[in-house]
Amino acid sequence: MTSASAPGKVILFGEHAVVSGAAALGGAVDLRAKVTVEDLPGSLTISADDLILRGFSLDLVSGRIASAEALNAVRYVRAALQEFEARDLRVKIESEIPLAAGMGSSAAIVVATVAALNMHLGLALGTKDIAQISHMIEKKVQQGYGSPMDTALATFGGYLLVSTSVMPIDLPALDIVVGYTGIPHDTRSEVEKVQSLLARYPDIVAPIFQAIGSISARSVPLIRDRKLLELGELMNVNHGLLEAVGVGSRELSELVYAARGAGNAIGAKLTGAGGGGCMIALPGPAGAEALMVALRQAKGLAYSVKTGCEGMRMEVGK
Ligand code: MEV
Asked: Is residue 247 part of a domain?
């Protein structure tokens, strides 16, 4: 039996603007997906009964499926198995990362699957190979769409500054709270919507992207020097700019305002593609617990996470 795990991620600053070449900063978080493979002669079974949204189990042989989100997670595992022509295996997925929420669950599942297969089948892939192959698999399943940030963060952990290239960056951990609206989002349609706005109003949207890129660049020394008040202020500005390009929603705003109000957050913004999915907030003097209570009262799911955490790892003896 071989197990590997990989972390989810949040985008701290720069989503959407990064699609047009501006800087974005992402961090791995300490919510993980774990994949276990073991020999099962004559069969190939994928099970995942404790994924966070809804429990489900899929048996590839009988084709039993319980939920669309679960089937989606399994598609990534199946693509990884196909990539290595793996058979005679039982594959079990366990994940603490909410699915289809913009927290990199599919990248974490692919990376953990590739890492577990690498060890189990003796493929001798290095870490860079695992990141590259996982990105290729994620892209294939998403039919050509997929940023390298998610699979790189799932593999290497830490923080990545992305613009025209992807650069690891050494920064201290941040304690943040993630609020999930419970509404799955569709990255591709949100990106297309924003890119269409840019094409129609380049004189208006390009400066917004430029401002977002400046926020990403300014956030790096603020995190390094732990200047949390300024960091929170820039989160609020970034949220407003994302609202301006049309990726906010009532549910996201309710969580953002609950965080800033009752939750006493220093700053809050949506994270990822928007439309649904998640927001992030920086806890104030009242702490993460008060923030989580406020988010739950506003009908969100709340997760207290650390950013900049460890990447892919083998899970020995579990
Ligand atoms: C989605 O997680 C982040 C976006 O910036 C899209 C991308 O970077 O590929 C909206």
From this structure: yes
Q: What is the count of structural domains for the chain? A: 2
CA distance 127 to 108: 14
Instruction: State the DSSP H helix or E strand holding residue 44, giving kind and residue range, or none if neither.
Output: strand 44-48
Contact call for residues 220 and 24 (beta carbons, < 8 A): no
User: What local confidence, expressed as pLDDT, does residue 40 receive?
Assistant: 87
Give the tens place of pLDDT for each residue, 276-308: 999 999 999 989 999 999 999 999 999 999 999
210 lies in a domain? Answer: yes
Q: Which atom of ligand 1 is nearest to the CA of 194?
A: 10
Select from 142, 168, 194 the last residue of a domain: 168
Report whether residue 15 contacts ligand 1, using a CB cutoff of 6 Å.
Answer: yes
Q: For residue 114, report the distance from its CA to the centre of ligand 1, in Å.
A: 23
Verify whether ligand 1 is closer than 6 Å to residue 187 (CB atom): yes
Q: Tens of pLDDT along 142-160? A: 887 777 899 999 999 999 9
- Classify residue 250: in a domain, yes or no: yes
Q: Tell me what the mean pLDDT of segment 249-274 comes to.
A: 97
Range 166-190 average pLDDT = 94
The answer to whether the Cα torsion of 176, 181, 187, 193 is positive or negative is: negative
Ligand 1 atom closest to Cα of residue 272: 2
With respect to residue 313, please indicate whether it lies within any of the assigned structural domains. Answer: no
Indicate which CATH number applies to the domain containing 134: 3.30.230.10
We report the CATH number of the domain holding residue 256 as 3.30.70.890
Q: Which of 91-100, 172-181, 232-241 is least confident?
A: 91-100
Establish whether residue 232 lines the binding site of ligand 1, counting it when its CB lies within 6 angstroms of any ligand atom: no
Q: Are 252 and 270 in contact (CB under 8 A)?
A: yes
Q: What is the pTM of this model?
A: 0.92
Give me the pLDDT at residue 67, please.
61
Residues 300 and 129: their CA atoms lie apart, in Å, by 37
List the residue whose alpha carbon is closest to atom 10 of ligand 1: 273
